[in-house]
Amino acid sequence: MSTAAKVGVTVAIIAGGVGYMIYTTVSSGNALEYYKHVEEVVGEAARWKHERLQLHGNVVKGTVLKKPGSLDYKFALHSKGSWLEVTYSGIVPDGFKECGELIVKGKLRDGKSFAADELSAKCPSKYDEKRDPAHGCGDDLRPAVLAARK
Asked: Residue 49, Cβ neighbours under 10 Å: how many?
């Protein structure tokens, strides 16, 4: 086999492999997730309804509920004065806690409800004491979250 033929076969194999990886990534839907903050999604809920999202925010203190005897959780996630109720069923990461920073993956069901199928806890920053008001515990939002659950 000539050198040109060997180079051609090698290029075809590499191109086929790259094409296959791109196809499988895009067809699984994981490459098409939008990364948004809570306030962005709440502000345009109709636009994001039923879209696959990665949603970033902090857990509102006092809103974490776990159904006894199950792995079903409900909690509120907030950012910049906006919040969403999140439901999740599964094992939570070690960093999952009240006031903790999370990225949840899933779909917005309506303007105030998000169905998560994956949780990722962000590592706390060494500058936690200097956090801006968009982060933290969301103490001022807790009454609205609890009232909406009734």
From this structure: 13
What DSSP state is assigned to residue 31? G
Q: What is the mean pLDDT of residues 54-62?
A: 94
The pair phi, psi for residue 130, each rounded to 5°, is -105, 25
Domain ranges of the chain: 1-32, 33-148
The residue to which tokens 């004065």 are assigned: 81
Token representation of residue 145: 């979250």
Q: And the tokens for 1?
A: 């086999």
d(CA 68, CA 57): 25
Supply the pTM of this predicted model: 0.74
Q: What pLDDT sits at residue 93? A: 92
CATH of 33-148, one of 3.40.50.300, 3.30.1240.10, 3.40.630.180, 2.40.50.140: 2.40.50.140
CA dist., res. 128 & res. 24, Å (int): 39
Q: Which residues of 109-120 are buried (b: 16+ CB within 10 A; e: fewer)?
A: eeebebebeebe
- From 23, 1, 2, 20, select the one nearest 12 (Cα to Cα): 20
DSSP character string of 116-144 = EEEEEEPPPPTTGGG--TTSS--TTTHHH
